[in-house]
């Protein structure tokens, strides 16, 4: 599903009017009528609709959309009141016309320019509230009378329908701009926006409905939005059918550099996931102290014991071995279970400088990322080949020198910032994983469930994406397909047995079925 930024949304709107001759008020009318129609359909024959609808409208075009919705609901026989957070005389353009048309049709309108009047409008409890305060153009924290309105909407106890996006949610990032309405239904126009599907904004969206209001397809083609909310149709296009005469030599050979004392499972999970994602060959380079455990844990895996010290890789001796091992490998995966120490930092520096190559991407995860945070993200910009970074919020906080709370408050901006700092392709794990490319393209993943909140899931994801990189997928595509199928496998398990108690190993075993369900044959 396509995602638009606020700027792209405005551009499509302007092109529709100026280049393709669609009247702006016609777009507003269709938008408002779509909101009214969705509300009538969702709450038809309910006590809430019979109790009446309160429209809380700002003075911009979002408020105009809300007033058109109010007029439409009146036409359908619904009792409607509208509260305008401004003087009607201050409205301009289409918003002023929408207000005039609503009032001319007999609509009840209260102009509230102070808090007392606004609170008075909520004394008579509405059955449903329409949030039409701010749309996708919000770029500063909500303050003053609109902030009071957001609070009143949240405490009045009525279900809420948001026009375009819940007021207070940043359309481009999903961040909360001071405070935000929590909607039960959001009706947006033409295309979904990033803030609808990325947390924390996604939690304020409720059910999302996308209304066709008549944007010409040519306007979208002119803008060419690159963002995607990844669903099965989006990733199915990335699948590569296998020829009947295929052999293991043409499906990649990733080298997984992972593991340490007490962390042999990390190397095994990443390696198993790479095998289950279709790699022709997989080699795991692991410290000698865990080599026997890893080698006995997966018969199909090739293992290379590396010199170790104190339960982890011994950097200088390992580097000499790796110079030979990386020859002919199609991708490198580094970090799961390696621990953070001077040897790991030295090994990471070598892998970025000499291991990565234009034809051999390097995926860095887990303690590889923690080590990168210590040596400095700017070192990644000098890597000899493409880098893929896969942090969870805690690792991202260390990379960005920010709190985990700050990362989670604006996940899209965090992923974009890491791309800027490192020049790498990045993904930020978590519900609605964010995928970001150096060219500023951002994808949001839709698959997955709370059952994935258990040990080893990140190691499995490293193996999946590393396998796809090794199969010569470009980083953005490997991350998109890898993250989606990782979540899709978990969803298949949850549908059978529920979202509690399944393990990373169960997910890995489900990968072939999840891939083949998408058409990976």
Overall description:
- The protein has a 12-stranded mixed β-sheet with strand order 8-1-10-21-20-19-18-17-16-11-12-13, sandwiched between helices. A 7-stranded parallel β-sheet has the order 4-3-2-5-6-7-9, sandwiched between helices.
- Strand 2, helix 4 (61-75) and strand 3 (80-84) form a beta-alpha-beta unit.
- The protein has 521 residues and is α/β, with parallel strands linked by helices.
- It contains 21 helices and 21 strands.
- It is elongated.
- It has 2 domains: 2-225, 3-Layer(aba) Sandwich (Rossmann fold); 245-518, 3-Layer(aba) Sandwich (UDP-N-acetylmuramoyl-L-alanine:D-glutamate ligase), CATH 3.40.1190.20.
- Helix 15 (367-375) packs parallel to helix 16.
Task: Give the CATH H-level superfamily of the largest domain.
Answer: Ribokinase
Tell me about the biggest sheet?
A: 12 strands, mixed
Class by alpha and beta content = alpha/beta
Distance between the termini: 24 Å
Looking across the biggest beta sheet, what order are the strands in? 8-1-10-21-20-19-18-17-16-11-12-13
Count of distinct strands: 21
What is the 3D form?
Answer: elongated
For this structure, the CATH topology of the largest domain is UDP-N-acetylmuramoyl-L-alanine:D-glutamate ligase
Radius of gyration based on Cα positions: 26 Å
CATH class descriptor name of the largest domain: Alpha Beta
